[in-house]
Amino acid sequence: MVSNFPEHLAVTATRDGLTDEQAYIAMQLLDHALRLSHGAARGGDSQLHYLAHDRGVPCSIWPADNVPSNLSGLEIWDTDVIHPAGKALDRNHDIILDGHALAAFPRLMQEELRSGTWAAVRFARKTDRPILIVWPDGTLTRENRPLT
Questions:
Q1: Rounded to an integer, what distance in angstroms lies between the CA atom of residue 100 and that of residue 129?
Q2: How many CA atoms lie within 13 A of 10 on its CB side?
Q3: pLDDT (0 to 100) of residue 110
Q4: What would the DSSP string read from start to end of 58-117?
Q5: CATH number of 8-143
Q6: Contact 36/11 with Cβ under 8 angstroms?
Q7: I need a surface site. Which of 8, 34, 70, 114 has the fewest CB within 10 A?
Q8: In what order do the strands lie in the sheet with 131-134?
Q9: At residue 141, does pLDDT exceed 60?
Q10: Cα 96–Cα 88–Cα 97 angle in degrees, nearest 5
């Protein structure tokens, strides 16, 4: 299902946190990942961070400068890399460019305007990155390059 997805995974997720179905797919992705890039936001990013470390996957962390506390409470391991804080939109671009593919974990079953998760997906589309959208019910949509 999600094996053979690129090994350096950039992620974007809702601040509401992952659904159980999204978490299940995330664990499958992380079982094949060598590195995870995320924005250290509360909710989905934090959950993905801990799921990655449960599987021994180090993280590249890209905090936003407008949320000074978004690293507080996040346990950092020696294998993690923390990048300088940046403006939210710029740092989302950095996260996507850092990974070989984007896995997006949106809040709703349709695309939204004024959503950081969907802004990241739209940027990934422009860069022709492989995209895997993991919908709240666990269904998957693959975009851009074919992924096996």
A1: 7
A2: 22
A3: 86
A4: -EEE--BTT-TTTTTT----TT-EEPPPB-HHHHHHHHHHHSSEEEEE-SSSS--SS-HH
A5: 3.40.50.450
A6: yes
A7: 114
A8: 81-82, 59-61, 35-38, 8-13, 101-105, 131-134, 140-143
A9: yes
A10: 15
How crowded is the C-beta side of 1, counted as CA atoms within 13 Å?
A: 13
Helical (H) or strand (E) element with 142: strand 140-143
- SS3 of the chain: helix, strand, coil, percent, to 5: 30, 20, 50
The CA-atom distances, in angstroms, between 6 and each of 16, 31, 95 are 26, 12, 15
Rounded to a whole number, what is the distance in angstroms from the first to the last CA of the chain? 8
Rounded CA-CA distance 131/101 in Å is: 6
* Global pTM value: 0.90
